[in-house]
């Protein structure tokens, strides 16, 4: 019979093969592959004897009632959506490792004293709507009207996507009033190089960096590429190029500030037409919220200058703003004890990447375990964690579940 770790490794491949594109891995909010992945996770939860359900936004839940179902539940899990041309581990590993830890307990015939709710979120990356943590935000409170109005590239709003693409539009949302769960614990790949350089398989997370996401649109005037002299042009794309380089130099001059422009669209988008509009995304992060806000202001001011110099109209649209989120000291100390018990390490790290814990921290204490990933590479198809490190992560999670006191 395969071990829980062997099952987990096979499941990573199985989930990693479910994609909306034949050539690479992509599963965005409520896409066909996203829904297929949810079905697969539901079947794994059911095989473990969990009581399963799915929210209208696609998020999946499996419940193990434990010895005392009336105690407040421990939430564990991660997200099953991906970025475009993703790796197989970001998000998926946290769900699959949680299943493996519960499977290990079952093999040891251990019933936990409290309920465990395994959550698999339909959207954390925000790839389709630019809005991160849709799945985990939805379990803390109904999504607000501004979020529901956000549109994807095809002009479909989140509200409409949930109404028309949801596998369970009529199902009850999965909601936890603040204070009702005892905590949320997530295992995730590190996505940086620190564990590799420290020769450690895992560590515990102290905090999750804040981030701001925006969409910027520059509007100029379309015109003929062959007949319009250079001084008379109002080219939105050359303006966007200046803005993107301004973002890069701001970040380069203020470490650890990081700014990314990951997507750009041009209209009309023909080789012989001067671009009328250029719309691009901004993802800006800094561990210090005040510095992040000041950096946003400086960037906005530089964009106003660039637009003015080039006779362009600037539309600066904030999409999301998340403050830095500390992990809970008590829950983290308990996870650290398990890390030390299994690996001997006491290593802790802040997370530069965003995680569902940011949203869930509104309703309960959060803690995170990081697993080493090769070359720190993530959001890339070569993302990889070794079977040995995955096994260690599952052992730490299992130890934590066993030693957590109600
Ligand atoms: C999620 O991976 C993020 O940090 O954007
Ligand atoms: Mn992730
Ligand atoms: Mn990610």
How would you summarize this macromolecular structure in one to three sentences?
The chain has helices at 4-16, 32-47, 92-107, 134-140, 145-149, 158-165, 194-198, 236-252, 289-309, 329-343, 357-360, 387-403, and strands spanning 51-54, 60-64, 74-79, 116-121, 183-189, 202-208, 210-219, 258-260, 264-267, 277-286, 313-322, 325-326, 348-351, 366-371. The chain is α/β, with parallel strands linked by helices and 406 residues long. The chain folds into two domains: 4-209 and 324-403, 3-Layer(aba) Sandwich (Aminopeptidase); 210-322, 2-Layer Sandwich (Alpha-Beta Plaits).
List keywords for this structure.
single chain; 406 residues; alpha/beta; Aminopeptidase; Alpha-Beta Plaits; 2 domains; 9-stranded mixed sheet; 5-stranded antiparallel sheet; 12 helices; globular; binds glyoxylic acid; binds manganese (II) ion
If you had to describe this structure to a student in words, what would you say it looks like?
There is one protein chain. This protein is an alpha/beta fold and 406 residues long. The protein has two domains: 4-209 and 324-403, Zn peptidases (Aminopeptidase), CATH 3.40.630; 210-322, Alpha-Beta Plaits, CATH 3.30.70. Helices cover 35% and strands 21% of the residues. The protein has twelve helices and 14 strands. It has helices spanning 4-16, 32-47, 92-107, 134-140, 145-149, 158-165, 194-198, 236-252, 289-309, 329-343, 357-360, 387-403; strands spanning 51-54, 60-64, 74-79, 116-121, 183-189, 202-208, 210-219, 258-260, 264-267, 277-286, 313-322, 325-326, 348-351, 366-371. The strands form two sheets. Strands 1, 2, 3, 4, 5, 6, 12, 13 and 14 form a nine-stranded mixed β-sheet that branches. The structure holds glyoxylic acid and manganese (II) ion (2 copies).
